[in-house]
Amino acid sequence: MQRATIGTYEVTTAGGERVRSFIPNSLPPNPPLALDGSLQQALEAASLALGRLDSMATLLPDKTLFRNHCVRKEAVLSSRIEGTQSSLSDLLLFEMNEAPGVPFDDVVEVSNHVAALEHGLVRLREDFPLSNRLIREVHHVLMRRGPGSNQTPGAFRRSQNWIGGTRPGNAVFVPPPHTAVPDCMSALERFLHNAADGLPILIRAGLAHVQFETIHPFLDGNGRVGRLLITLLLCHYGALREPLLYLSLYFKQHRQTYYDLLNQIRHTGDWEAWLAFFLEGVRTTAENAVLAAERLSDMFRKDRERIEQMAGRKTGSALRLHEALKAYPILSLPAASEQTGLAFRTAASAMELLATYGIAREITGKQRGRLFVYEQYLAVLNEGE
After folding, report:
1. What is the DSSP code string of 224-280?
2. What is the three-state SS of 23-89?
3. How far apart are the C-alpha atoms of 227 and 204, rounded to whole Å?
4. Average pLDDT of span 304-311
5. What's the 3-state SS for 301-324?
6. Radius of gyration over alpha carbons of the chain, in Å?
7. pLDDT tens, position by position, 238-278
8. Which element (helix H / strand E) includes 14?
9. 130: alpha, beta or left, given left = phi > 0 and alpha = psi -120 to 50?
10. How far apart (Å, rounded) are the C-alpha atoms in residues 169 and 160?
11. How far apart are CA 187 and CA 251, in angstroms?
């Protein structure tokens, strides 16, 4: 549905030239959303898939491991959308104080993303409101290290920014002037808590993401915070008990459509087209996450059975190492010893045993500083990168 009035333009001066900054109308859209027909079906399918993902997580024997790797996968993919080259393997190496294979700043950005999401979730569990203050805190954690650390982390911008182009005058889109940001963000905060409008959680999350991206309240990091906001909303309102939905996988796979639809709303007010895309992303990502969790559980079980059947007197140490590799799919031998509590020689012997079984594989080709990867496990985690 196209809408005649979706916002207003304000002519301002930025970079020495006059530009038209867009100030969006407050949510929800007017006229109201047409939540019927195919869009209603998409909402039901996405809600059902998200419910299955949430329910499945409670049944996993290794749900904490799966949760932690979902958080890291989302961080990697969301950062990839913004142009970083870091992979999940790079992040895991960085967290072990090993050298990643990409520029240091790239993996720092991904690590910051993990910390920002965890900070937001901890605050919500402490009954801190989902608010502009929390959004600023999340932004501060996201930007406190690395290239964006000089872009006023944790503070709404006090100058004009723009999207695309080399300056405001040739930009693809110019967000609201900085003077309008506080009012726009206050209106968004009210929308996040407006239960009286009766909007389903997924619809609210989809609308809020676009509104945040349109306001672009920070000098840098808006895309990543906007995607974090989706996860925080779903967890805050109980659609997910844990952050298992790595929706950035879908956005990355359909990056141009993602950007086109965000921009299209600002011109036509066709929120329904965006929501159809968003809900399809939720459905497919949730379904794929369930399949991945089932595959991992089956793989862990089969590998454990192989160890129990074949390891003989080394079964105990091999099983302990297997558990460590589930938590840390890339391990050095010193780290394996530390994580299992086994003596270095015992851990090294157990790792060689797992390598013989094809469960672990050495990836450096060196005699010293060797690293071992739980290859099949990491392959599942890396799907879609």
Report:
1. HHHHHHHHHHHHHTTS-SS----THHHHHHTHHHHHHHHHHHHHH--HHHHHHHHHH
2. EECCCCCCCCCCCCHHHHHHHHHHHHHHHHHHHHHHHCCCHHHHHHHHHHHHHHHHHHHCCCCCCHH
3. 13
4. 88
5. HHHHHHHHHHCHHHHHHHHHHHHH
6. 23
7. 999 999 999 999 999 999 999 999 999 999 999 999 999 99
8. strand 7-14
9. beta
10. 11
11. 26
Provide the pLDDT confidence category of residue 159 given band limits of 50, 70 and 90.
very high
Question: Could you tell me the residue ranges of all domains in the chain?
Answer: 7-291, 311-381
Using the structure block, give the residue that is written with the tokens 């072990």: 96
Decide: residue 96, CB within 10 A, 0-12 exposed, 13-18 middle, 19+ buried.
middle
**Rounded mean pLDDT of 217-241?**
97
Whole-number Å distance between alpha carbons of 221 and 143: 7
User: Among the listed ranges 5-9, 19-23, 38-42, 307-311, which one has the minimum average pLDDT value?
Assistant: 307-311
- DSSP label at residue 184: H
Is 80 exceeded by the pLDDT of residue 184?
A: yes
Which of the four CATH numbers 1.20.1330.10, 1.10.3290.10, 3.30.70.1270, 3.40.190.10 does domain 7-291 have? 1.10.3290.10
CATH class (in words) of the domain with range 311-381 = mainly alpha
pLDDT beyond 90 at 2:
no
d(CA 380, CA 293): 9
Q: Would you state the structure tokens that stand for residue 59, as one six-digit string?
A: 């049944």
> Three-state DSSP class for 219?
coil
Q: First vs last Cα of the chain: how many Å apart?
A: 34
The distance from CA 133 to its chain's CA centroid, rounded to whole angstroms, is 20
For residues 210 and 188, what is the distance between their CA atoms, to the nearest angstrom?
A: 11
- Is residue 261 within 8 A of residue 206, CB to CB? The reply is no
Mean pLDDT of all residues belonging to the chain: 93
* Exposure of 72 in the CB half-sphere (CA atoms within 13 A): 25
- Residues 315-347: b if buried by 16+ CB within 10 A, e if exposed: eebbbbbbbbbbebbbbbbebbbebbebeeebb
Q: Which helix (H) or strand (E) holds 330?
A: strand 330-332
d(CA 24, CA 7): 4
**362 membership: H or E segment, kind and range:** strand 361-362
